[in-house]
Amino acid sequence: MSGSPSALRFLNDRAALEALLQHEAITRAQLETLVGLSKPATSQLLARLEKVGLVERLGRREVGPGPRAQLWGLKADAGFAAGVDVTSQGIDVEIADLRGTTVAQHRAPAATDEPAAALGAALGEACRRAGLGVDRLAHVAIGTPGSVDAASGVLRYASDLPAAWTRVNLLQAIGSVLDVPFTIENDVNLVALNEMARGSARDVRDFVLLWISEHGVGSSVVVHGGLVRGATLGAGELGFTPVPDLAREPLPGVHRFGDLLAGSALLTLAGTHGLTAGGPIDAIRQSLEGDDGFLIDVARRIAAGLAAVVSLLDPELIVLGGAVCSAGGSALRAAISEALAEFVEPRVRLVPGRPDSDSVRAGAVQAALVPAREHYFSAGSSLGDI
C-alpha cells in the first residue's frame, strides 16, 4: 500500500474501527489479523484511538491458550445518533450509541403548530433522559410521511400530518432549531432500512417494500442495496399510481392504487361480500375465518399495483408490511402471488415484514448511524484535532 503517512493512518484507523464495530471485544493480535498490520503498528494504532476516546480496554481474556491478553473494544459512547418518527399521533425519538444500542427514548404529543420547535423539544428531552446535550448527536434522521421537495424544502404527500408540517420550508425551519446535522427521510424508506438491518431483507440487494395500513399505502424501492429516491425525492410513491380495480365486482374506470386500498374503500369492498366490520383489519380476519372472497379481492387489488413494479424492476423479493398485510398473513401473500402470476412473468418471493410498531423509528436510527459512524470512523485518531 502506498500513500502519505497521514492517508495511511486514516485508512488503518478506519479499518480498525470497522473491525471493532463487528466484534464486541478482541485482542491486539486478533486486530492485527483483521486489518493486516504488524504488531508495533497495531499497538500504535490502538494507543492513538484510545487517546481520542474511540476505543477502550475491556479487561483481559480469561480463557484460551497463552497469557491473559488485553481485550479492546469500540467505545460506543464516543458518539450518538437519533432517530425520529413523526406521525399525526406524536413525535417518537430514540437515541443510540455508535453500536446502535438504545440509550433513551421519548414520545411527545403531535405538533399542531410550530413543528420544528416541537421536534427540537422532543429531541432535547430524549437527550436529557440519556444524560447528553443535543450537541453530542452526530446525526439526526427524521422520518415523515411523504417526501421533502428538494427545491422548496416543503413536505409533500403528507396529508395525514397536521397542516403546520406542510406549510413551511421544513428543512429551513428544522435547521434553525437544530445545530446538528440532520436528514428528513420518507417513513416507508426507513422501514425498508429496518428490514435490511434486522428483518426479511437482510443480505438482499434488490427488493420492494409495500406498506399497507388502515391509514394508507406506502412503498419503497431498494436497488443494489440502496434506496431509490428519484430526481425530486418522490420515488416509491406507489399509492398515486393509476391502476384498474381487479376485484371480481370492480369499481368502473381507473383509480389510484392507494385509493383502492384505503380503509374506506376496503370497508366498501367488504360490504359487497356481506361482511359487517368495524375496520379493514376486522374484515380481513372475518374473511380468514369464513368466505375468503374478500381476501382474494384485496389480493387482486394489491397485485394490480405490484404488477408493473415487478415487470420493471424484477426484484428478488417483495416485503409486505403494515397492519393490513400482517392481518392477512400467509393466506393474503399466497393470494397475491397467485394473482401476480396471472399478470407478470417474473416470479417473486413475497415475505412478511417485521411486526414491530417502532419500525420507522428503528429505521431512522439505522439511517442516522451511517453518517454518525462515518464522522468518527473517517476522522479516526485525528478526531482530537477537529
Automatic annotation (TrEMBL):
A single MF term (Gene Ontology): kinase activity
Domain HTH marR-type: residue ranges: 16-57
SUPFAM superfamilies from the UniProt entry: Actin-like ATPase domain, Winged helix' DNA-binding domain
Any Pfam family matching the protein: MarR_2
Key words, A-Z: Kinase, Transferase
Family under the similarity heading: Belongs to the ROK (NagC/XylR) family.
UniProt name for this protein: Transcriptional regulator/sugar kinase
Source organism: Cryptosporangium arvum DSM 44712
